[in-house]
Amino acid sequence: MAEKFDKKLSYYIEDEELTFTKEDRDKTIQKIRRQTEMKEDKKSNRRIVPIVATVAAFLLAIALLPSFIANESPNADSMVAQQGDMTFSTLVMARDSSSPPHRNPVNILLTVNRNDKSIKAVSFPRATYVDIYDAEGNKQMKDKLLHTGAYYPDPDASLLTVSKFLQVPIDYYSFVPIEKFSQMSDYIDKKSKKSAVEDILSEQEVFKHLMEQIQTSKETDIPSELLDDLATSHYQMEVIKLKDSLKDTFIEERYYVEIEDKRLESITNQLLEHLNEE
């Protein structure tokens, strides 16, 4: 059977007319060229892949180099902190711990310029009518500044409340027990609806006492470097007074103090300029 099949195949090949035209030749050449080009492309791709990988690794190394240097340098973070803290602001609050909930009867905002050794201070009346914010930055209600600590004990709430009211960034806080304001408390009428702190804040003895209380505060996030600078350097304080721009008002039969808009804007500009001075 196999021999018969082989004979038929042999006869078919012999009888078939074999022709190879110009068109056939052209097609064959084109096919060979395509196959050759495909092989060359594959070889080229194999050569390009390692090159691309090498270039990508090199670029990644360049991108990560600054962070490697920063991590290896022990002074990198402290240098940034020093440059950023040549001016800073802090909210000093007197906490009345004798009668919870803990209210803040005294709120003094200080902007500090370490370049020219100057401090600007603003003391807000306890009855100042403000938007009160929680520690997450959500506006909750309008009430007296005095009650912020009672509603939200987290110091961030007080910082945000004063910062948004005045439109001035506040970096740090310092709590001082009201009884520690020994010299200041003699001048403050606790029954008064308007704080008299600004009247005596510029007195040298009072200012010195305030600085001592800030430096020894057990509740503060002011860095030790800045506290040391406040203790060892001689600063000049300027008190920005609000008293002449305060307006008495009653809302739902409750007494509040409001600050004139133009005066508030002027104070904001003064403090921002002080923080931006180099």
UniProtKB/TrEMBL annotation:
Xref: Gene3D superfamilies: 3.30.420.590, LCP protein
InterPro entries the UniProt entry points to: LytR/CpsA/Psr_CW_biosynth, LytR_CpsA_psr
Keyword Transmembrane belongs to the record: yes
Transmembrane portions of the chain: 48-69
GO biological process, one term: cell wall organization
Domain Cell envelope-related transcriptional attenuator: 106-188
Superkingdom field: Bacteria
Annotated keywords: Membrane, Signal-anchor, Transmembrane, Transmembrane helix
The keyword Endoplasmic reticulum belongs to this UniProt entry's keyword annotation: no
Family statement drawn from the similarity comment of this UniProt entry: Belongs to the LytR/CpsA/Psr (LCP) family.
PANTHER family in the cross-refs: POLYISOPRENYL-TEICHOIC ACID--PEPTIDOGLYCAN TEICHOIC ACID TRANSFERASE TAGU (PTHR33392)
Protein name as annotated: Transcriptional attenuator, LytR family
Organism in which the protein naturally occurs: Gracilibacillus kekensis
